[in-house]
Amino acid sequence: MRLFNMKFLIELWEGFKVALMALRDHKMRSFLTTLGIVIGITTVIAIHAIIIGLNNAFYSSISALGSDNLYISKFAWASREDWIKALHRKDITMKEADAIKKFATSVKAVAPTVSARRTVKYGSEKLTGCNIIGTSEDYTITANVLPEFGRPLSELDVDHRRNVCIIGFEIAEELFKKANPLGRRITVGMHKFRVIGVMEKRGNMLGHNLDTEIIIPIGVFQKLYGSHRWFTIEVKVTDARLIEEAKDELTGILRRVRKVPPGKENDFAINQQDVIADLYKSFTTALYAVAFGVGAISLIVGGIGIMNIMLVSVTERTREIGIRKAIGAKNKDILWQFLVESVMVSSIGGIIGITVGFAIAKLIASSTFLSASISPISIIIGVCFIGIVGISFGIFPAYKASRLNPIIALRYE
Amino acid sequence: MLIDIKDIVKIYEVGTVKVDALRGINLQIKGNEYLAIMGPSGSGKSTLMNILGCLDTPTSGTYNFADQAVSEMEDNQLAEIRNREIGFVFQTFNLLPRATALHNVELPLIYSGTPSTKRKKLAKEALEKVGLADRMNHKPNELSGGQRQRVAIARALVNNPKIILADEPTGNLDTRTGEEIMEIFEDIHEAGNTIILVTHEEYIAEHTNRIVRLRDGLIERDEAV
Known about the structure:
The complex is a heterodimer of chains A (413) and B (225).
Chain A: H1 2-25, H2 27-62, E1 69-73, H3 83-87, H4 94-103, E2 107-122, E3 125-135, H5 139-142, E4 147-150, H6 155-159, E5 164-167, H7 169-176, E6 185-188, E7 191-199, E8 204-205, E9 208-209, E10 213-217, H8 218-225, E11 232-237, H9 243-257, E12 269-271, H10 273-316, H11 318-326, H12 331-367, H13 376-402, H14 406-411
Parallel strand pairs in A: 3-10, 5-7
Antiparallel strand pairs in A: 1-11, 1-12, 2-3, 2-6, 2-11, 4-7, 5-10, 6-7, 8-9
Chain B: E1 3-14, E2 17-29, E3 34-38, H1 45-52, E4 60-65, E5 68-69, H2 75-85, E6 86-89, H3 101-111, H4 116-129, H5 145-157, E7 163-167, H6 175-190, E8 194-198, H7 202-205, E9 210-215, E10 218-224
Parallel strand pairs in B: 3-8, 3-9, 6-7, 7-8
Antiparallel strand pairs in B: 1-2, 1-4, 4-5, 9-10
């Protein structure tokens, strides 16, 4: 058995050397042949790396939403529900938020929130399009955001509708440069607010810059900017495992407060982070499908190219096959020789593809916010593809070569 | 008896036409014989050569090679016989154009599974025997016709086969070079090898000890020189 393996290895090595010689003699032809494989593998590797980058960006940004958070509003997120109908629903107000705070046992924080975009000014510096959030002291818990310095909203600020604000990290940098913003009065839209805190750096959430937010007491917001339909109550449940029970309890409370008659459907929605995650997943699944489709098609095209060139190669080397057979090569020796060659062609294509794919991913990563990274899985997938293509499209030419009659092959001119 | 052929018939079918290439050949060859097979084209000498060399099998009849029934063997077994027992020398040399002389000579050893170091040693020895020690790393197109044929002879010898089958080995060479090649064959014969030469040149055949003449698929004459 050992002898057989040794013999096999010797023959395989010969096949490898012959293939190398053949590729060296036909550099241009071999390069063109590998192009299909290069494109296929490049696509798969690059898109896979980009999706990994997207995943990292996405999951780190929606983690701000928290898996134990519920968001009560008139509108359901990412649903096919009739928007016009939802628009005509009764607005959610402080009444609902107060009732939840009073009656719900399964929640540990309730933050009613409304928001609007305004320009923020301090002296000659200004920043447009800042997101003003009117909320309560519980927002610190539901949004999981603590001040970098200064203090968060207090119950007193909210109850007494004080004109105070906590500003985002970027606002502090833009308006105050290196000066201390605490205690300064900034202009939000038309009104003056005293800065009591600066939020820690939070980054992006779904393309939304969280560092240009300004938090003010909800009472002040409603007095100055009015109440409106985007009123959302953010709720943090006491135990993430009991989130379904919490939803049931909240539904009961809301139906009572909003006087929804029994048998009628809810005129509000309790939203959750996983809705967005599901939406995102279906998007990346589609992206994977596209990558797989493009990859598969170019690999098939590449494979056909390899088969074509191998058939040419077999014909060109008919005499060589005859010589080898005359001096003792068996059919399987010839089969292996040509199979090694086709696998080598597809491997070269694959290696170029993996390199180029990775380079493209890195390029995208360095020019966008995505952190593209190559995973061992995509390399394994790539290598498997290379092997499958090389063998499945090389087997027919190799078989054809192995079946050549040595007498006829020797006579071939 | 090294080679024992009885009633060998070979019929080719070309489309619907049947061609009787060999019509009942009987031939015995002993070890260390040196013989020539002669005949005009179409006499069946190439077919006989192919059968003797285990490249082809007869339509009917028996062929025993060193007491093995070759006529009943399968492709793989025939390949093994060719590899171990037969050394071929062709008119057109049939060397691999991209490989060096050394690699060409190594080839039979590759298919017999000889490890690399031993292979190189045997191939070098075979090249030295034919006087090409200084041309080992040259490719065929860097060698003269005579040198190429010597590489082919080294390749035929390297596996230490029982017979050397040479098909018009001087056909592509000038007379002087042809004579040189024939001298090498004589040396090989004197060293104890069996040589079968296919030729249509009388003066080449005269180097041998026995001439078998074919005509129309039959042996016409079989005589000692």
